Amino acid sequence: MSGYPESTWRLIFSPAADGATQMAVDEAIWRAVAAGRALPTLRLYAWSPPCLSLGRHQPVEQVNRGALQEAGYGLVRRPTGGKAILHADELTYSMAVPLTDPRVRGGVLESCARLSRGLLAGLTALGVSGATASRRASRSPPGPVCFEEVADFEIAVAGRKIVGSAQVRGGGGLLQHGSLPLWGDIARVCRFLIPAADPERVRRRAVTLEEVGRRVSWAEAAQAMAEGFAQALSLRLEPDDLTDEEREAAERLRLEKYSTEAWTARH
Known about the structure:
Layout lengths: L6 E7 L5 H16 L6 E5 L5 E4 L10 H7 L2 E4 L7 E3 L2 E9 L9 H18 L5 E3 L21 E3 L2 E11 L2 E9 L17 H7 L3 H4 L5 H16 L1 E5 L4 H15 L2 H4 L3
Parallel strand pairs: 1-2, 1-11, 3-4
Antiparallel strand pairs: 2-6, 3-5, 6-10, 7-8, 8-9, 9-10
Helix pairs in contact: 1-7, 3-6
C-alpha cells in the first residue's frame, strides 16, 4: 500500500517528436498544473529524431555540434538540471504535480524518493530485479554524461544507473522528467561531447533495460511504467490529451524558447 489517498491524475501517451517540442510540451503542462488549470499529469513519450539534451546549466561548449549534425540528431536544453543525455531508443517520462500534493511535499530529495517508487514498480513489472533508489554514500569526479553518475534516489541495478531523472520547481508546481534507455549502446552519447567522454566508463556505470531484463517495445514499457506509478502512488490515471491552452503555450515555448540559440547557448 502506498499510504496516500487515491488521487486522479491525467495520463498522456505522446507521439514521438523533436527535442524542442517535447521540452516545450513539458513546460506547458507544468505551468498549467501549477496554476490549477489541469490535473496532475504523467506523460510518456519518445524522441524523433534522436536528440542530445543538456541540463539547464550545462555549458553548450561541451557539445560536438558537427557530430550531431552529421548524425542527423537534434540538440535541446532542458528546463531541469543534470548532464547530457542522448535520447534514442528510450522511454521518457514527465510528471507535473502541484507542490501541495503529499507525494511531492518537502524538499527535492524527499519528493524524488517518493516518486522513485513508481519507477521501481514499473521496472519490476518489466522483469527487472534488484533495482534500488537510495541516498548515495559517495561521489566520483563529475563528468558531462548524465548516466556516468547515480544521483540520490535515481534508479540503479547492481550499482549501474538505469533511469536518469531531474526536477525543477516554480509557480507552485514541480516538473520531474527522466530517461529509461530501452536498448542500444548506452555510451553512444560520448562521441557527441567535447572532449569525447570515455565510453567504457559510461558502460561500467550505466545499463539499458535490455541488459538487465529483456527487450521490450516502447508501448510495453510505457504501459508498465504507467501501471507502476498508479500502483506505487495510489493514482487513478485517466488517459487524456493536452488542452487547447497547453497546445498554444507549447507552440509558443517551442518557437520562442526551446528552438532558439539564445536558450540553447545560455549559461
